[in-house]
Design brief:
There is one protein chain. The protein has 423 residues and is α/β, with parallel strands linked by helices. Helix content is 44%, strand content 12%. The chain contains 18 helices and ten strands. The strands form three sheets. It has a six-stranded mixed β-sheet, with helices on both faces. The model is unreliable at 26-109 (pLDDT under 50).
């Protein structure tokens, strides 16, 4: 919205038109901008301005996501009901009348198609993956002991000063939640349980785009994408709260959270929403489930697969490093029943404040960090009855999966398949 407003201002005032013309100087796509006029969004750092210093606050609003030495242009054609995200914009700050130098936040996005020999080599390596066995499980348990001790000491210190924060029951009603848009909510039945779904407005005659969250999240994680995708008018956009999360059902037992069952939840959710297939968009834990669902059901279920923040588990297993294993030590903490729940839920899930706002995992952008109003949604979801155990049981089932599961488990077979849908 800020980008569009700035562009309108530039186009409608004589000074703005002159500025925009100067800004585009040296860019060979300039004539295309005139051709598309109001139906085109332009994000440019001119070659005549290599340091990226913008000419005015209006131009800076448009280009505040560009890194400091960009000399290329991105043009996304739009139409009245189609919105393209051309940059992940963060707020530009002003200091002494000049705009502060932006850090290098560019991310290269390249359409890559692996050569046939690489695909064949990776597929051959994936044939060898499987559960590590009881010896590996024992090693993980031994490695977890220091993590458990440290967490128990920290929890005891909190108990000493605020015993009610540790032993009291989390209260989801303690938070004031402001919906990001009018919610169309529905509870669907999948595999004998009810899952909570949210949409900005169902379009049942359009292709389904199903959004699957990660840990410790919920449908709200997708609020920005949901609004933008819904605005296109091209999709039936639905986000789902997976089993164990928020107000969805939370069946008991590790066997209820095995990967094959979670992937089956996705398939049954697609059908319960009135579709036979979907574009599957997923993040973090949802990404792992999405990879497995795509491998188990193929293009009968998944038209296109979009996964963020979670590589294919099989490829990750054959390429893992010790540094990566160290970053996953929190998984060992979550294996401790009761302790894990208390760490995550104590003081109305105050631990999520650190997860979302502090290093090394916290959100970082040019505007600072996650606002209180957004964080409240995540904490309230974790304070739902049974949510702490439900969400952590995903990790406990995963530990069993990678160590002592059946090698013939459908999820292992799924990860050994080459996917043929666009990813």
């Amino acid at each position: 919205a800020a980008t569009a407003a700035a562009l309108r201002s530039l186009r409608t005032s004589p000074a703005g038109k002159q500025e925009l013309s100067a800004w585009n100087a040296g860019w060979n796509g300039r004539q295309r901008s005139h051709k598309h006029g109001r139906d085109c969004v332009i994000v440019v750092a001119s070659t005549s301005n290599p340091n990226g210093r913008m000419l005015s606050s209006r131009v800076s609003t448009v280009s505040n996501a560009l890194y400091k030495r960009v000399t290329s242009a991105a043009v996304q054609q739009t139409h009245p009901q189609r919105h393209s995200t051309v940059a992940a914009a963060a707020g530009t700050q002003q200091q002494h009348g000049k705009f502060m130098q932006l850090p290098d936040i560019r991310t290269e996005v390249t359409d890559r198609v692996s050569p046939p020999d690489v695909i064949a080599s990776t597929a051959e390596k994936l044939k060898q993956i499987g559960p590590g066995g009881r010896q590996q499980l024992l090693l993980y348990q031994l490695a977890a002991l220091p993590t458990w001790v440290v967490s128990a000491v920290q929890l005891a210190a909190k108990y000493a000063t605020r015993p009610g924060a540790v032993l009291g029951s989390p209260d989801a009603t303690a938070f004031q939640l402001e919906p990001p848009f009018p919610l169309e909510e529905e509870y669907i039945t999948v595999n004998g349980i009810k899952l909570h779904t949210v949409s900005p407005g169902r379009r049942r005659d359009k292709p389904l785009m199903l959004l699957v969250h990660g840990f410790p999240e919920l449908w709200y994680s997708w609020r920005h994408q949901m609004a933008a995708l819904h605005a296109t008018g091209q999709w039936d956009v639905v986000a789902i709260d997976m089993r164990g999360y928020n107000t969805s059902d939370k069946p008991q037992g590790v066997e209820q959270y095995r990967l094959a069952i979670l992937a089956s939840d996705v398939r049954e959710a697609v059908h319960a929403l009135g579709h036979t297939s979907c574009t599957l968009v997923a993040h973090d834990w949802g990404g792992l489930v999405a990879w497995v669902a795509a491998g188990m059901y193929g293009r009968q279920l998944v038209d296109k697969l979009i996964v963020m923040g979670l590589p294919h588990l099989g490829v990750g297993m054959i390429n893992t490093t010790m540094a990566q294993r160290k970053r996953q030590l929190y998984i060992l903490l979550f294996q401790a029943r009761w302790l894990g729940e208390k760490v995550i839920s104590a003081d109305n899930a105050a631990a999520l404040d650190g997860m979302f706002r502090s290093a090394p995992s916290g959100l970082k952008n040019l505007q600072g960090t996650m606002p209180d109003g957004a964080l409240a949604w995540y904490r309230a979801a974790m304070c739902q009855p049974g949510a702490a155990t439900g969400t952590l049981t995903w990790y406990r089932a995963f530990m069993e999966f990678v160590t002592v599961s059946d090698p013939q488990d459908p999820a292992w077979s799924a990860m050994k398949r080459v996917l043929d849908m666009p990813t």
